[in-house]
Amino acid sequence: MLIRCVVYQHGKKIADIEPQQIHDYVAQPDCFVWVALYEPDAATLASMQEEFDLHPLAIEDASHGEQRPKLEEYGNSLFVVLQMLEQENGELRIGALHTFVGRNYILSVRKGAQKGFEDVRARCEREPELLERGSGYVLYALMDAVVDRYFPVIHNIEMALERVEEQIFANKSARESIVELYGLKQQITACKHAVGSLLDALTNLSGTRVPQIRIGMQEYFRDVADHLQRLNQSNETLRDTISTAISVNLSMITLQESETTKRLASYAALIAVPTLIVGIYGMNFEFMPELHWRYGYTFAWASMIGIDAYVFYLLRKAKWV
Asked: What would the pLDDT profile of 221-243 be if each residue is shown by its tens digit?
């Protein structure tokens, strides 16, 4: 549950510490503590609440896990919720990163997502001049990493959509295409919720009354917002494309049904001609033309075959058969 608990001073790592030592370093003005948790239990969250003096409402939100991205202000600290998107075998898994940010601490709680943020920590430690800015820079780095992981998800959805579009015109089962398209629509809707809500939360960051988090970081958060704008536009484009693909697929189904109806009507017309002739000659009246003619039977067959051949020619010319 506890991944790392590290204290930094002037942008450089001082030491890995135990959770019960946190309050000793948080009290020092030139240090900040970065704690990372994964799927913590209630007791662990309670201990973090005590060490960092976290608001109980924020702890309650972090305990539940399933929430849209948001930014809430509690006194001199921020509580930020980010949604993490991961794909496995074409299925979209939604996790969450709850982040508590104060002047000299940052606590990240990851839930439902497999990939962690060790690469983000390594990146920050390679840039001590930026890490010296404290918890605000770490918050940016975490947000930037989460947003960057959205791009492969959107790309995979685009590739899957292109594959389904090819299947629509390859006479594949229309039902399978509809099922796949609606699955992709659900995924892109989940992406839109994650991106749009985070963009709103990031916009609210500029108005927060916790200046130590955002001072000197405006251009960095603006860069994250630009990425989110690009993702938002891609989401809108994909949603429109998926809706168009669904309409095209339904139109293809209608065309297939129309072709089937035309074929059935053509076969019915071919059968109707001999049925008419045979029906007339089967009436057993005494005075019927060619009834007692030697070649009447042959003439009847020749008439049926000839008329059917002509009807078949007309249907073939009209591309009904």
From this structure: 888 889 999 999 999 999 998 88
Domains of the chain: 2-253 (3.30.460.20), 257-317 (1.20.58)
The sheet that has 105-111: what strands, in order across it? 12-16, 2-9, 31-38, 105-111, 91-102, 77-88, 70-74
Rounding to the nearest 10 degrees, give the CA dihedral for residues 163, 164, 166, 170.
Answer: 130
Listed residue (135, 139, 133) closest to 11, CA to CA: 133
Instruction: For residue 28, give the 3-state DSSP assignment.
Output: coil
Chain centroid offset of residue 92 CA: 7
Measured from the Cβ of residue 104, the count of other Cβ atoms closer than 10 Å reads 19
pTM of the model: 0.78
Q: What is the mean pLDDT of residues 194-223?
A: 76
State the DSSP H helix or E strand holding residue 82, giving kind and residue range, or none if neither. Answer: strand 77-88
